[in-house]
Design goal:
Blueprint lengths: L2 H45 L6 H28 L6 H28 L4 H33 L16
Helix pairs in contact: 1-2, 1-4, 2-3, 3-4
């Protein structure tokens, strides 16, 4: 193997590690957005408990914080981590489908932990930690893999018919 091919091979081996660390950095940024907005909304709902049930307020705060952080996360990850610039509409649809399932489950977990006596912000941090792992796996092995396969795949020359009329 030549040195150029060997260095290219090493770069390909390092790519998943780099992507993981980029994803983790983006998750920290968007997690701060999500946690901050969640904390602000929960404190707002604490002040109006006589109007809205506190548990309902927690669920509403969770949904709104997820929408804000989810959108931010998808845009940053598609730009910096997985380089999925094409077909963002399809990607955001797949990303929202993931959160359509995980957000109700996460909201239920937050409310259950809080009712068991765990401080609300710790409940959110536990949920976010689980979510980061699931989110990374879903993005890496499903969303951006589907987008790459559908939009970025180049045909293999051997499998492409040759319509060249010139004879060699």
């Amino acid at each position: 193997m030549t040195e150029e091919k060997q260095s290219l091979s090493e770069n390909e081996e390092q790519k998943p590690k780099r992507n993981f660390w980029k994803f983790l950095l983006v998750s920290c940024i968007t997690g701060t957005v999500g946690l901050g907005s969640f904390a602000l909304l929960v404190s707002a709902f604490e002040n109006i408990q006589n109007i809205i049930n506190y548990d309902v307020g927690i669920v509403i705060a969770e949904y709104l914080s997820v929408i804000w952080s989810c959108t931010c996360s998808f845009v940053l990850n598609s730009k910096f981590t997985f380089k999925g610039r094409k077909a963002r509409r399809m990607g955001i649809f797949l990303y929202l489908a993931f959160y359509f399932i995980t957000t109700p489950l996460g909201s239920w977990m937050i409310v259950a932990l809080n009712n068991a006596g765990v401080y609300i912000i710790f409940c959110k941090i536990i949920k976010m930690t689980i979510n980061v792992v699931l989110d990374y796996l879903y993005c890496r092995y499903f969303i951006f893999a589907v987008i790459k396969k559908r939009y970025d795949e180049t045909p293999i020359p051997e499998s492409t018919p040759n319509f060249d009329l010139k004879k060699n």
